[in-house]
């Protein structure tokens, strides 16, 4: 029954939110209340076959939701182009007292010897190998692969088909975009962005944007 399920709010209302909703729907113990959306462009997002993902309001509604739904959990559903928004919402969830919910697609592979931080989302076909640890609110898109003994900071986004090798260290708020590769034992600094298709073979400074094969720093984002 609904009263026995854990209430969940999804932060974000785009296609990524639909994907997260689909994963959560595979588990009988969660009740997705809907999502928050700053844009408020739609009253609801169609999921087909008469189902819809309700937009509950913008992010300012989170304290009210936490009060109305004891035990409320939250999960981020925003892509790598919104890393700054993701970082802000991580702080908001902590401040409001909404605990994160970890979302793992049943067709992903997560080693029993890996550790996932709260709020981590693992999409279909993603692989996390033994000894790897993620911080809270990380995201692995479809087909992303993380090899063994790698560490991810808080709010790291690994894009579709990206590969991160063994003994890599990724700082907080790092984005590894679609199809990029990070070689073994590389450190990627806080707030850095690895653009799509890049091959990273050397350490990346904090807040650097790297691109190319091999990857090189092309600019810096605001700290």
Describe the structure.
By secondary structure, the chain is an alpha/beta fold. It folds into 2 domains: 2-100, Rossmann fold; 102-223, Hexapeptide repeat proteins (UDP N-Acetylglucosamine Acyltransferase, domain 1), CATH 2.160.10. Helices cover 14% and strands 31% of the residues. The protein has 3 helices and 23 strands. The chain has helices at 15-25, 62-68, 83-96; strands at 6-11, 30-36, 44-48, 51-57, 73-76, 99-100, 103-104, 109-110, 121-122, 127-128, 139-140, 145-146, 151-152, 157-158, 163-164, 169-170, 175-176, 181-182, 187-188, 193-194, 199-200, 208-211, 216-220. The strands form 4 sheets. An 8-stranded mixed beta sheet has the order 7-9-11-14-17-20-22-23, covered by helices on one side. Strands 3-4-2-1-5-6 form a 6-stranded mixed beta sheet, sandwiched between helices. A 6-stranded parallel beta sheet has the order 8-10-12-15-18-21, with no helix packed on it. A hairpin with a 4-residue loop joins strand 22 and strand 23 (216-220). The longest helix is centred in the middle third of the chain and has 14 residues, at 83-96. It is globular, with a radius of gyration of 17 Å. The model has no long low-confidence stretch (mean pLDDT 92).
């Amino acid at each position: 029954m609904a009263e026995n399920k854990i209430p969940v709010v999804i932060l974000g209302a785009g296609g990524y939110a639909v994907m997260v909703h689909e994963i959560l729907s595979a588990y009988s113990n969660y009740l997705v209340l809907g999502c928050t959306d700053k844009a408020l462009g739609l009253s609801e997002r169609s999921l087909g076959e008469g189902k819809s993902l309700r937009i509950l309001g913008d992010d300012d509604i989170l304290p009210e939701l936490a009060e109305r739904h004891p035990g409320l959990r939250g999960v981020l559903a925003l892509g790598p182009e919104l890393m700054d928004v993701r970082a802000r919402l991580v702080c908001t969830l902590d401040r409001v007292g909404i605990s994160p919910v970890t979302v793992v697609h049943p067709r992903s592979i997560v080693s029993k010897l890996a550790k996932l931080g709260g709020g981590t989302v693992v999409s279909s076909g993603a692989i996390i190998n033994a000894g790897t640890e993620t911080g809270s609110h990380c995201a692995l898109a479809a087909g992303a692969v993380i090899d063994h003994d790698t560490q991810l900071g808080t709010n790291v986004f690994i894009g579709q088909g990206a590969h991160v090798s063994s003994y890599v260290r990724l700082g907080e708020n790092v984005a590894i975009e679609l199809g990029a590769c990070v070689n073994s034992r590389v450190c990627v600094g806080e707030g850095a962005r690895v653009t799509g298709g890049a091959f990273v073979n050397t350490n990346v400074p904090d807040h650097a944007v790297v691109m190319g094969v091999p990857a090189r720093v092309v600019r810096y984002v605001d700290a």
